[in-house]
Amino acid sequence: MTTPFIPHLILAGLVGIQCDITEVSKVSVKAGGSISIPCLYEPHYRDHEKYLCRGGVWLFCTIKVGTNRPQNSEKFSIADDKKQTVFTVTINDVTHKNNGNWWCAVDRGITDIRKKFQLSVTEDEPILYMIKQEVEAFEGGSVTVICYYKHEKVTGWCRLGNPNCVSRTGSISGTKVTINSSVPQVFSVTMSDLTTESSGWYFCTDGQFQIPVNVTVHESTSTTTTATTTIPSVASTLPTTIQHSSLLTSTEPHTAQATDSITNGSGEDSLQDEHRSSTNMTILITTLVVLLLLVPAAFLGWWMIRRSKSKPGGSDITADSQTGSDPDVQYSTIVHNKHVAAQKKDSTPEESVTYSTVVMRDIVQQMTELADDSVIYSTVVK
């Protein structure tokens, strides 16, 4: 959104009111990147409109975005934190055309208050920068912010609105600060023993450039849930520990006091009922699975046994019939193999007996006794 300068801006320029707002004065940003600038104002301006103005001279600047105006541009945005009395302006997709003077301003009706900051756009790495301008931590923990610089060494760590900056280990606004600058072109700041009062905008400075970062400290809250099972004297307590991590923060895990817990009474009875129902369902499902496995196995075993019993066995009696040289005589031989029968009955095999029958015209019975004690019974039919 672009609007030309208006008469009240001219009036404000003539009056020259600049003392009621404080913010970063000069920043370096790489082309194509984005930058957020915090603008601090006095508490009695909470309900006034805040806006970002572009121009080398205040008298001729144009308003780009305001809190009481439609924000339809992706290039500019503005947000007002009335609790912290800070409004933040953000410029996206920075180009070399954005080099120069910008103004944070508060509308007071006739004489607006404003403060200038300069934007320096580079093709490569900025002169002073950090990876991210928003970091979070938890109460009682710590947070580390790393500032990178190219030329002039960083000389201090400051809090927006606080004239006292820290150049070495100490404290700022009641928060312990540890500074490590032993690594070339790196300025590392660790704030520890954080409280919610530590929340706010801070910045690194080399005396000419600044790079701001918003530190948000959350209250430590966690939920400890106690679940009692049906097994006597057994209870499990599952604490939930909140831990935050980001590219720029190194927070320590902290477990706060339990805010919600399940106590004796209806809550415990409900848990026991749910557990009992779950156990019964598990037993039922297990029983069904076992039955589904046993029934097919039993049927298969019965079928195999029945099949083996119905299979025909070998005969222990063999018969042979033949005709000799005389067509009128027929010879029949039946052999009873007791060895085979003994194998079936698991008994001791005995000698074999051979029965022979010769059919002729007349019947003559003969008995021949062989030398090996075998007996041959012959019936001759003549």
Tally of DSSP helical segments: 3
Proportion of helical residues: 10-25%
Mean pLDDT: 73
Low-confidence stretches: 1-22, 223-268, 339-350, 358-372
The N- to C-terminal Cα distance equals 140 Å
Share of residues in strands: 35-45%
Largest beta sheet, briefly?
5 strands, mixed
Anisotropy-based shape: elongated
Which series of helices and strands comes N to C? HEEEEEEEEEEEEEEEEEEEEHEEHEEE
Rg over alpha carbons: 52 Å
Number of E-type strands: 25
Strand numbers in spatial order across the main sheet: 2-9-8-4-5
Q: What structural class should be given to the helix and strand makeup?
A: alpha+beta
Write up this protein.
The N and C termini lie far apart (140 Å). The relative contact order is 0.10. The model is unreliable at 1-22, 223-268, 339-350 and 358-372 (pLDDT under 50). Strand 24 and strand 25 (375-380) form a beta hairpin. This protein is 16% helix and 38% strand. The longest helix has 45 residues, at 266-310. The strands form six sheets. The chain has a five-stranded mixed beta sheet, with no helix packed on it. A five-stranded antiparallel beta sheet has the order 10-12-16-15-14, with no helix packed on it. With 382 residues, the chain is of the alpha+beta class.
